[in-house]
Specification:
The structure is a single chain. The protein is an alpha/beta fold. The protein has helices at about 10-30, 35, 60-70, 80, 90-95, 110-120, 135-145, 185-195, 215, 220-225, 230-240; strands at about 100-105, 125-130, 150-155, 170-175, 195-205, 245-255, 260-270. The protein has one domain (about 5-270): Rossmann fold (3-Layer(aba) Sandwich), CATH 3.40.50.150. It has a 7-stranded mixed beta sheet, with helices on both faces. A hairpin with a 4-residue loop joins strand 6 and strand 7 (about 260-270). The longest helix is centred in the first third of the chain and has 17 residues, at about 10-30. It starts with 11 loop residues before the first helix and ends with a strand. The structure holds S-adenosylmethionine. The site of S-adenosylmethionine has 27 residues, from helix 1, helix 6 and strand 2.
Length: about 270
């Protein structure tokens, strides 16, 4: 376990364990007020990011945050909205079509998968990969409650995805890749699983300027989706290095205290 170690002293597996521990607590509803006060929660702009959790003092809930990001939460199971931890609404911008296969990286309690499942219909499918067992369990229960059958929850690491080569039309992700120690690996995996011509639409936290070493070293800031964020240009370059074309930030959702902001990022696997 991470204990009081600094992020720079931790191996990749230890960082992932700290992330898993934090998001188990998000799934269980025991993410502490202290944690909510740190990381992205400090930032005024983060009223539209729930990665760090709801703001106790203003009684802004994860449901409110999802609604502020444009989600229609009507009819969604409470279990899907109470553990929402995104910083954008990638499905709204992904232009999904009937029959498409969608892959959600770090699918959490499943909110984006459920929205996507309606768009791709019964001839399509939505696969979610997450490394936190409590999130996978919660997402499965939520899908049962909704009676949705075109969703497939897979336990696994987005740095080594349990997904076949050339099998996916669209990769989406919401506030997750910042948490991966090896972002280059995530993008190479996304490229591998996409069909030729397949596309990526993610929302994620990126930086407009480097973080201080102190901030980067705090476990709570890392698990709160800030400490692991990289410069926006570096993020785009990682995608290009993996083989993606037409890589760009399509829109931004405000600056935060440390120069970290939520961005919508798109790319395409060549035909
Ligand atoms: C900030 S939450 C976002 C969850 C969801 N996308 C949403 O918008 O509510 C991050 C999620 O990504 C998962 N995650 C983080 N790193 C991961 C990795 N390397 N592989 C798979 N899942 C990961 C966590 O378990 C957690 O469920």
């Amino acid at each position: 376990m991470s204990g009081t170690k600094k992020i720079s002293e931790m191996k990749s597996d230890e960082i992932k364990e700290a992330v898993r521990d934090a998001y188990s607590r998000v799934a269980e509803g025991t993410w502490t007020a202290d944690e909510q006060e740190q990381g992205c929660c400090d930032a005024p702009a983060q009223t539209t990011s729930s990665c760090c959790g709801p703001r106790e003092e203003t009684k802004v809930t994860r449901v409110n945050l999802a609604q502020a990001l444009g989600y229609d939460t009507e009819g969604m199971p409470t279990g899907a909205t109470e553990s929402f931890a995104g910083c954008g609404n990638p499905v709204a911008l992904a232009s999904l079509n009937e029959g498409e296969v969608v892959l959600d990286l770090g699918s959490g309690a499943g909110l984006d998968m459920f929205v996507a499942s309606k768009k791709v219909g019964n001839t399509g499918k939505v696969i979610g990969v997450d490394m936190t067992p409590a999130m996978i369990e919660k997402a499965k229960k939520n899908a049962e409650e909704l009676g949705i059958t075109n969703v497939d929850f897979r336990f696994g690491d987005i740095e080594d995805m349990p997904v076949d080569d050339n099998s996916v039309d669209v990769v989406i992700s919401n506030c997750v890749i910042n948490l991966a120690p090896d972002k280059g690996k995530v993008f190479r995996e996304a490229f591998r699983v996409l069909k030729p011509g397949g596309r990526v639409m993610v929302s994620d936290i990126v930086l407009s300027k480097p973080l201080s070493k102190e901030i980067r070293d705090e476990v709570v800031t890392y698990t709160g989706c800030i400490g692991g964020a990289i410069l926006d240009e570096e993020y785009l370059q990682n995608m290009r290095d993996a083989g993606f074309q037409d890589v760009k930030i399509t829109s931004k959702a405000g600056q935060s205290l440390y120069g970290a902001y939520s961005a919508y990022i798109a790319g395409k696997k060549p035909e």
